[in-house]
Design goal:
By secondary structure, the chain is an alpha+beta fold. The protein has one domain: Aminohydrolase, N-terminal nucleophile (Ntn) domain (Glutamine Phosphoribosylpyrophosphate, subunit 1, domain 1, 4-Layer Sandwich). It contains 7 helices and 9 strands. Helix 2 crosses helix 3.
């Protein structure tokens, strides 16, 4: 995995790192305009840890609660941006706790209790309630869309109220995920199957396995 971070215009960053000379099966990118935190290279996206790469659009209003919870388990948030805590949360839930990506998504963007009560599948109802009860401090509130890169694929996740847009498109064997359809059209003008996932509904794309919702 390679991570390229800088402060500047995206096209200048790409030229500086000579990105056209690299190849890969998955790419994540983010042009961040900081609003509540300083603009510096340490706060630039993507955030990487082991084989995770995280880019995030939006603002986490539950940052302090999430940070306090995750720092109880040895993590330290010091890069002055809320995206850092998302990276640690995914590492804790998936690598340390052994949750699946879908289960981790159901912690970060947990269903409302009313939605859980209305769940007709007893096993799912019990699982959702268990995750909400055990990991209450990792529920993320506020407007956000997240793309997580991992070995073998990507996962995209919206906040449960869908306060930030997120769009998925396909063309042939390629899958595109962006905040706006226009960004997908720049990459692939003939993109097909354009759709917007529901709030809190993870979209998981695995190499050779396609899209899973």
């Amino acid at each position: 995995m390679g991570a390229f971070k800088a402060v500047g215009y995206p096209e200048d960053v790409g030229a500086f790192y000579r990105l056209e000379e690299y190849g890969g099966y998955a790419w994540t990118a983010h042009g961040r305009y900081p609003t509540n935190t300083p603009g510096w290279w340490g706060g630039a996206h993507p955030f990487t840890l082991l084989d995770y790469s995280v880019v995030h659009n939006g603002e986490i209003s539950s940052y302090d609660a999430n940070r306090r919870f995750i720092e109880m388990y040895g993590y330290k948030c010091s890069l002055q941006t809320d995206t850092e805590v998302i990276t640690y949360m995914m590492d804790y839930l998936v690598r340390v706790q052994g949750l699946t990506l879908k289960e981790a998504a159901n912690v970060i963007a947990a269903p409302f209790w009313s939605t859980i009560e209305a769940q007709k599948d007893p096993a799912l109802k019990e699982r959702y309630a268990f995750l909400r009860t055990v990991f209450p401090g990792l529920l993320v509130t506020g407007p956000f869309s997240i793309i997580l890169g991992f070995t073998g694929g990507l996962m995209a996740l919206n906040d449960r109220l869908k306060l930030r847009s997120m769009v998925v498109g396909e063309k042939g064997e390629k899958v595109y995920i962006a905040s706006e359809e226009a960004a997908i059209r720049v990459m692939e003008p003939d993109a097909e199957n354009i759709w917007a996932p529901a709030g809190g509904e993870p979209v998981i794309v695995r190499v050779k396995e396609g899209v899973e919702v």
